[in-house]
Amino acid sequence: SYVLTQPPSVSVAPGQTARITCGGNNIGTKSVHWYQQKPGQAPLLVVYDDSGRPSGIPERVSGSNSGNTATLTISGVEAGDEADYYCQVWDSNNDHPVFGGGTKLTAL
Amino acid sequence: QVQLQESGPGLVKPSETLSLSCTVSGYSISSGYYWGWIRQPPGKGLEYIASIYESGTTYCNPSLKSRVTISLDTSKNRFSLKLTSVTAADTAVYYCARHYAKYGSGRSDYFDYWGQGTLVTVSS
Predict the structure, then answer these.
(1) Which end of chain A has fewer CB within 10 Å, C or N?
(2) pLDDT per residue over A13-64, tens digit each?
(3) pLDDT tens, position by position, A60-83
(4) Which of A6, A89, A96 would you mutate first to test chain B, the one with the most B CBs within 10 A?
């Protein structure tokens, strides 16, 4: 199965930029999607197809993908951005979606 | 506005079958999307279970395939999950979601609408 590797946690000061990485073999050739999950809530799609933003997601949330790493970038981090973030791709060898292990974002 | 709502028993005994349904409102499940299940054990990450299309085409996590059945009931606009021979390791919050799939030079599949989730505990 295709493996996605995320750091367990990322901490940034409010107002700064948070970068959450998602590593995978040649992930740059895949479409990467990102979800935000706050405690007790369902995941929310925040980025699709590497850098697309669903309606209602602010412009300070962005994504990129190249080589072996995809990155979710959140500029001007606010307390309300504290959440777990998951990346996800399609595993073309096994024909099913796979999720990364998740990264907990903390605004210090 | 697409809305999904899971329903089913919150407690299942070991070795029995877990059965959940997801009722969709605001969108017809016969209109061109896959519909899927994802679960999350307490304190852990997301795990894909399975998806189904209106044609009956399904995808399934290989690690669960032998125990999973997914089905559609278009008359009630809902889809269902059955997981057999459950153990404590199947204790999780189970989410249903709309599964978008795009085919082109490469696949793009993601989950754009989610239910609120339902906790299923496997215990005697």
Answers:
(1) C
(2) 999 999 999 999 999 999 999 999 999 999 999 999 999 999 999 999 999 9
(3) 999 999 999 999 999 999 999 999
(4) A96
A53/B3 Cα distance (integer angstroms) = 20
The residue type at B54: E
Of A30, A31, A99, which has the smallest distance from its Cβ to B46's Cβ? A99
Contact yes or no for B111 and A44 at CB 8 A: no
What's the 3-state SS for B4-65?
EEEECCCEECCCCCEEEEEEEECCCCCCCCEEEEEEECCCCCCEEEEEEECCCCEEECCCCH
Amino acid in position A73: T
Backbone angles phi, psi at B28, to 5 degrees: -85, 130
